[in-house]
Amino acid sequence: MNTAVRTEAKPPLRVIVVGMGVRSMIYSRVALTNPELLEIVGVVDINERRREYAQLTFGLDPANCFATVEELVAVPKFADAVINGTMDKLHVRTSLPILRHGYDMLLEKPFAINEEEAAELLTCARETGRTVMVCHVLRYAPYYQRLKQVVESGEIGRIINIRLSAQVSYFHESVSFVRGKYASAELCGSGMLLTKCSHDLDLMAWIMGSNTPRRISSVGSMFQFVPENAPANAGTRCLTDCPAERDCPYSARRLYIESPQRWADNVWHDSNMRRPETDEEKEAFLSAPENPYGACAYRCKTDIVDHQSLLIEYQDGATGTFSMTGGSSFSERRIHVIGTKGEIYGTFETGRFTISTIVPEAPEGRLQHVVDVTEAQANCHHGGGDREVVLDFIAQMRGEPTSPGKTLLEDSVTGHRIVFLAEKSRLANGAMQDW
Ligand SMILES: NC(=O)c1ccc[n+]([C@@H]2O[C@H](COP(=O)([O-])OP(=O)(O)OC[C@H]3O[C@@H](n4cnc5c(N)ncnc54)[C@H](O)[C@@H]3O)[C@@H](O)[C@H]2O)c1
Q1: CB neighbours of residue 190 within 10 Å
Q2: pLDDT score for 1
Q3: Is residue 135 lining ligand 1, measured as CB closer than 6 Å?
Q4: Of all atoms in ligand 1, which is nearest to the CA of residue 24?
Q5: What is the DSSP string of 42-91?
Q6: Most CB atoms within 10 A, among 136, 168, 176, 340?
Q7: Domains of the chain by range and CATH?
Q8: What are the tens digits of pLDDT across the range 20-63?
Q9: With 50 as the cut, is the pLDDT of residue 413 above it?
Q10: What proportion of the chain, given as a percentage, has pLDDT over 90?
């Protein structure tokens, strides 16, 4: 973690937030908790309510609140940097003029939605000499930082095989990837592998270090959320015409009214709705015919996959696999790295991983010990990475020591490229793609 103590009396980093949504609100909190480090001085958002939120929360000068990036770059530069928290398909489109206008940037992942866009952004950053840091927040979680240290220490030897998996709970899957803003390429610009699991493939790329892939194949499909899987007597909308509603795990009433702790907040936020006060308000909202959150989860017009697996061969012959599954009973990320001298395995959410090394003289032929970072990650979303990435960006901008896991744009390329090639393979029936 980036725990460098910053005692020098430097002014806070002055930042403009572009896209004042869920993610930017999280990052901007650093300006409230640590005003000596970060000051939000402007906002760009097409949504008037989000601009108002920013103006009120950070006491912004109305002259520094813009509806579009075009308006922002029409005025002289007035801040040190930008936090870009727009949706996936807008990342490159919004970043190019901002970089050309002289702003450095903390940019949400995925930094681009295809290879062409990625190349365009890299070229622009290189030509303008601007810094772009990508929000691969998991690299900052103590769990993965410690795991990376163990790999680098040589304790498990050279990596033979690395396996990662990510499963997404049925309530997160349905609110985000079936009914919500990530449900189609049209809405979000990318599929579930890129938008959700670019984190996991970034971690794999980081752990494998300079050992880049040689070839990649991938298969996957939309398995569950198709009309054929709807209960026999299902209707089209949970609250209005569905006799199967009480027995369905995807009942909008059960998920968003009766169990609000299961990601229901996303419904109100992503619909730009003020959080409803009463059940009646929620019912009326979810019953509206055009509201995607009240629609039968099996009849949504998703065009993305809900499960996908990758097989990767590395330059030195090592292998890697990754499996993503949406719609599981709970969310979890697992990792298992097997080296020539031992292995590491664990589950991110537990905050613990085990190191098992080959020791012929030991009674079981091996020795094991557990690394426990539960305390360091307690009560932190993304293991604390959401805050740490902002602190690291500030450190980078101030020329102070940064995290060993920092994700400048060029550090993020391999993980993104794995996704792009995996998608190419999946669309070609799993055909191997050369790096
Ligand atoms: N790093 C992570 O762990 C992580 C987690 C979740 C999401 N994300 C990524 O964060 C990004 C934002 O997600 P979110 O949930 O905050 O989305 P959001 O919809 O809450 O926020 C996006 C904001 O952009 C604004 N916007 C739309 N068009 C705009 C434009 N042309 N110019 C300026 N603003 C515009 C919207 O009004 C909205 O306020 C996505 O790319 C998503 O994939 C990252």
Answers
A1: 24
A2: 47
A3: yes
A4: 16
A5: EEE-S-HHHHHHHHHHHT--GGGEESSHHHHTTS---SSEEEE---GGGH
A6: 136
A7: 13-134 (3.40.50.720), 138-221+302-434 (3.30.360.10), 227-299 (no CATH)
A8: 999 999 999 999 999 999 999 999 999 999 999 999 999 999 99
A9: yes
A10: 89
Which of the residue ranges 81-85, 266-270, 352-356, 413-417 would you say has the lowest mean pLDDT?
266-270
* Cα(270) to centroid(ligand 1), Å: 10
For 49, 59, 65, 83, 96, the CA distances from 62, given in Å and listed in that order, are 13, 9, 5, 18, 24
Cβ atoms 365, 358 nearer than 8 A: yes
Tell me the three-class secondary structure of 342-395, residue by residue: EEEEEEHHHCEEEEEEECCCCCCCEEEEEEECHHHHCCCHHHHHHHHHHHHHHH
Scan for tokens 């006060």, then name that residue: 277
Structure tokens at 409: 């744009």
pLDDT, residue 312, reads 98
Nearest alpha carbon, ligand 1 atom 39: 21
**pLDDT recorded at residue 8:** 57
Give the pLDDT of residue 270. 83
The Å distance, Cα 38 to ligand 1 centre, comes to: 20
Probe ligand 1: pick from 20, 23, 82, 190, max atoms within 8 Å of CB?
Answer: 23
The predicted structure's pLDDT at residue 252: 97
**Residue 407 beta carbon below 6 angstroms from any ligand 1 atom:** no
**Model-level pTM greater than 0.85?**
yes
CA of 345 to the centre of ligand 1 (A): 33
Distance 194 CA to ligand 1 centre (A): 14
